[in-house]
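Hi U.,

Before I forget, here's the chain from the pilot set. I'm dumping it here mostly so it's searchable later in email.
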Amino acid sequence: MNSGVPCLCLLASSVFLYASAYAAPVLRCVLESTGATQTHDAVVTKDPYVVQPVSINDHFRFKAEMMGDGQGSGIEYIKIYTYYTSARGAVLLHQITYSHPGVSPTPDAPSLTGLQWVYSPRLERQFQFECRLLEKNC
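Structure:
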């Protein structure tokens, strides 16, 4: 009779339960311009240069960088950029930095950014966004 098998099964199930309960942070942003709404999720990364901006109605670009080590030890900072797309290229309109923000466990938690309104320098176009920092189950 092998008494080590039940212990091995118990250890394996404990590891599975711990892994399934682990939640990674996600920055969920609702982006809206000229009546079109989309949701963008940003995850923790070590390299800000791999984060690609999202195009909003071909007039704006939105980029959210959530920097950390990716090992669950927290978020160092979040930077959010909004650009206006002109004939010459992208023009930075708005940039926000949040240092060591806290994660909220529920989607109805208060917003990290509040409702932000950004206006283009031409054609009276507007763009709005709001982001919440949440836990996302892996």
